[in-house]
Structure formats: C-alpha cells, structure tokens
Design a protein that fits this description.
Layout: H1 5-16, H2 23-35, H3 39-44, H4 52-66, H5 71-75, E1 77-80, E2 83-86, H6 99-108, E3 116-120, H7 126-134, E4 139-144, H8 147-159, E5 165-169, E6 181-186, H9 219-231, E7 232-241, H10 247-256, E8 260-266, E9 272-279
Parallel strand pairs: 3-4, 3-6, 4-5, 6-7
Antiparallel strand pairs: 1-2, 7-9, 8-9
Length: 291
C-alpha cells in the first residue's frame, strides 16, 4: 500500500529514534534525498503519496542509517559555511565547530589584502573553499596526503565555481614551495588512537587517518607547528583546531616553538576548540626553505 509523505516521515522517525536524537530531522533529510525535493515540498504536500519506487529507495536509505552509515555519506553531501559540499567516505565529514577557524581567519587577516593562505589536510576542501568564497582576492593553497581527498576537494571547487585555490598533494607543509604565507590553517587529526570516542556516532565510518594522531592525539599538531615556521612570513598566523582537552598542551608546543600572541578560542558549546599564534615578528630573521 502506498503511503503519503506524512506517514512515511513518522514511520522513518520512529525507526531511527533509538539511534539518535535527530531522528525527525534525519528522516526528512533522507526523504528529501529520495524524492529529490526540498524540505519545503515535504511540508507543503504532506498528503502526497510516494510511488512504490520512492518508498523502496527511502526504506533502503533508512536501513543504511540504522546500520550507522553517516547521513553525509548516504546523501553524498554536507553543508559547511552555507556551501553544499560533495562528501564521500574518503574525507572527514565537516563539522560546524570547524567554522570557528574560518571566522578567525576572516577576522585576523585584512580582507582588502591579497593574502596568501595554506589549508593543510584540506579533506573535502571545506576550510579552503569557505575562505576562497569569502575572499576571492586571496591566494589559497590546499594540501592533502590523500589523492582521493584532493579529487573531492577539487571537484567541490569546480562545482562551486571557485578558482582561487591551488590543490597540492603532500603531507602537511611538504607540498608548499614558498615561505611567505600570511596564514597557515588546519583541522588536523587530534584524537588519541585508542580513545573510546572513536566508537561513537559517525566516527567508525570516517577515515581513521583523518581522525587519530598518536597515543595522545598530538603527533600531527606537533609536526604542523614545527613545519609551519619555515613557510610563514614574519608576523604570519598559525591557526589549529584541536580537542577540547588539548588547549594547554597545544599552547606549550606553540610556546616552545617560539610562537607569540598565543590564544585559544572556544566553540559555540563552550569547549576550547581553536588555538592561534603569530610567528616571527618583522624584526626577527626568517627561516629559509631547505633545497
């Protein structure tokens, strides 16, 4: 028997309720995807009946979600900074918390200046694309060690008609060839490799190399802090996302490396989330990139 939109949504929400608190929203997102219609359509036509094919597709999507498959991987899309991004299992799913890095970059750098920015470990390209969208005059380099991730980031840039990003393959700063960046920004892996947190929510389905970083979660942050000094211009900014419990160790690492004006910012939930610092004031010598 064919069911209408209202009934299909209630049934799906009931099935998903045991899995998460967002069951009603997730039911809507999955039905929107199955029908290829916006949310407004669901609310405007609650009595409209689904075809047998639509019902079959919708139920298949619900089954995937009940198995734990992330919504972003099911639909192949996730919004970040109001930009629709293509998402696959090759990249980390962008989180709202990471938008804090974008806000800080836009705040700290002169918007009229033709700034040079490097986004390390770009993944889907979320940070680089958000900055490029807001500042088309900036010259942005996005790096990633995963060729599959870079392909997704490049495709997102093409879909969004953003052309002020250069994509390069390499681990952290290894792909950079210039040493006059105004900003190096990154949301690197920062979860301890044996943390029970990795078993929660969508995390078991996401690429582990984009999540974990050594026994304390700081291996990649250490590497970025050490490498970035070579590539930042005097007075350049380093901005890093990190775990809620890593504010102090990250500050220590930045201080030991000679960074100044170190400050940690909290996300909307009140958790320490992003630390920023300045390297090499103009009166100090600048390191050169080794040949």
């Amino acid at each position: 028997m064919r069911v209408n939109i209202k009934t299909a949504l209630k049934s799906a929400a009931d099935q998903l309720q045991s899995k998460n608190e967002e069951h009603k929203l997730e039911a809507e997102v999955l039905l929107m995807f199955a029908l290829e219609k916006p949310r407004s359509f669901l609310h405007a036509w609650p009595e409209k009946k689904l075809t047998e094919k639509q019902s079959e597709v919708f139920q298949q999507l619900i089954k995937l979600r009940l198995k734990g498959e992330p919504i972003a991987y099911i639909t192949g899309e996730k919004e970040f900074w109001s930009l629709p991004l293509k998402i696959t299992a090759d990249v980390l799913i962008p989180r709202p918390e990471t938008e804090l890095l974008v806000e800080l970059a836009l705040e700290k750098l002169d918007h009229d200046k033709n700034s040079k920015v490097a986004d390390l470990g770009t993944g889907s390209g979320a940070i680089a694309l958000a900055l490029a969208h807001e500042r088309p005059n900036w010259k942005i380099t996005a790096t990633d060690s995963s060729t599959n991730a870079l392909k997704i980031a490049e495709e997102n840039a093409s879909l969004l008609h953003i052309n002020n990003i250069t994509f390069k393959s390499g681990r952290w700063c290894e792909a950079l060839t210039e040493n006059d960046y105004d900003l190096i920004i990154s949301n690197p892996p920062y979860v301890a490799e044996n943390d029970s947190y990795l078993k929660q929510g969508d995390l078991p389905f996401e690429p582990q190399q984009a999540l974990t970083s050594g026994v304390d979660g700081l291996d990649d942050i250490k590497s970025i802090i050490q490498q970035s000094q070579i590539y930042l211009k005097p007075g350049g900014w380093l901005m890093l996302e990190h775990g809620y419990d890593q504010e102090k160790p990250v500050a220590v690492l930045l201080n030991e490396a000679g960074y100044q004006a170190i400050h940690c910012y909290h996300d909307l939930a009140g958790h320490p989330r992003a630390s920023i610092a300045i390297t090499h004031y103009p009166d100090k010598p600048h390191l050169h990139i080794p040949a």
